[in-house]
Design a protein that fits this description.
Blueprint (H helix, E strand, L loop, with lengths): L1 H23 L5 E6 L3 H6 L17 E3 L25 E3 L2 E10 L3 E8 L2 E7 L8 E7 L5 E11 L4 E11 L30 E4 L5 E2 L4 E4 L2 E5 L3 E2 L13 E3 L1
Length: about 250
Amino acid sequence: MRRNLLTLALLTPLSVLATTVVAAAPASAHGYISSPPSRQALCASKTVANCGDIQWEPQSVEAPKGRTQCSGGVDRFRQLDDESKGWPATPAGSSVTFNWVLTARHATSTWQYFIGSAKVAEFNDGGAQPGATVRHTVTFGGYGGRQRVLAVWNVADTPNAFYACVDLQFGGGTGNPGPSPTPTPRPTATPTPPPVTPPPAGGTWAAGTSYATGATVTYGGLSYRCKQSHTAITGWEPPNVPALWDRV
């Protein structure tokens, strides 16, 4: 009996310590820019091929803070640094709104946007927990031509950050047709209202598909409308992410 009591006394502190360690483990946090499409979003939607692991987990580019690569220096995501892939550039004006989709929300210190070594913008959350989607409008005064924007999500209570690169085309150039000429209106007796354009249809929901705001899909016999542009991945089925989909 005394031996059993001694064994219990020796084991109990270890079990308490193990429980404490598990409880203290930080929660994971994941996210990426869905629009304008980041390089990982282009890989997830199969717009750019041969991307390796990133096509299955575009939200996972996590590395220590202070990195300057699109991959964050993570070896298995090095395809994001490969300029020979011919990443499509999104036509842009002087300001651009970046939309983040977060698969796990984590206390945030800052969001930063860089072109080369220059920090163009920073948004300070002061350690707050973000929502499932985050939006920032960044002004790019003075920039022209093709530019690669490095966006960084700095987590508040870990030494890590999440990285996403977005290729933009400012002003004229490839991928930007420029403004169309305005036609001269013909006089009419009664003004004709413009046609109403229905929201884009999305068919049956499928992982790897890019959905625009307003797109409608079916899943499990029900219809849903997209609330936020994003590239779908497994686990983001419409019933699971009300921040992205509304039942209709």
